[in-house]
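so my prof wants the structure for this chain in the tokens format not the other one, which i didnt know existed until like an hour ago. anyway here's the sequence
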Amino acid sequence: MAPSTNPAPDANISTSDALNYWNSISTTVDGMLGGYPEISRVDLKGSANFFAKLRREQRSQSTNGPLRRGVDCGAGTGRITASFLSTICEVVDVVEPVKKFAQEVKGQNMVGSGSVGSVYVTGLEDWVPEAQYDLIWNQWCLGHLTDKQLVAYLERCKKAVTIDGWIIVKENVITNVDGEDVFDQEDSSVTRTDQKLRQLFKEADMRLIKTEVQRGFPKGLYPVRSYALKPQLA
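here's what i got, hopefully its the right format
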């Protein structure tokens, strides 16, 4: 069979198109979650459970007490920062390319005792970490990066995570029979296969420590998988 001459799905990604789309979306939870605000509670509980298990399994990291500093990448209006990361981090920095979303973050009511630190209004493809983080959280945002941009981004994150810290990726995964990534023209993003994500993690010289599928979402939505990553040992 002759190789496909079609461009790779990620070749269609346009940062300007993505920004135009998100700037047209409301700052409500409904807007942030694509019309499924009811999944927020289940999502946050799943993230908390995943991270709690991760901490228990990593003996070098205390299972008690907050992390010193985390960062919420592609944070939107700060839903995850306010309702989850503030409960496990003393300070949470935020990276968000849509200005109107970023402006909402500091006005959110924090569920935990953590506070919002620096807010970077920039895309992940351009963000260069200025601090060291115990936790770098990436959720429903990496589909806006091309494969090449994602590998470069993870390589920058590698230099910014503490020795006992984690890089978390939580994304939709595609399960079509072709085993290929799928481009979404509406928001100019790509939904990747589990296999592709693992390949890109490897290219970025990351170790996959733990992974699991989010449970409890409505039927008809893409499966969502969490990955805990650390830099490869030298």
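also thought this was worth mentioning. The chain has a mean pLDDT of 94.
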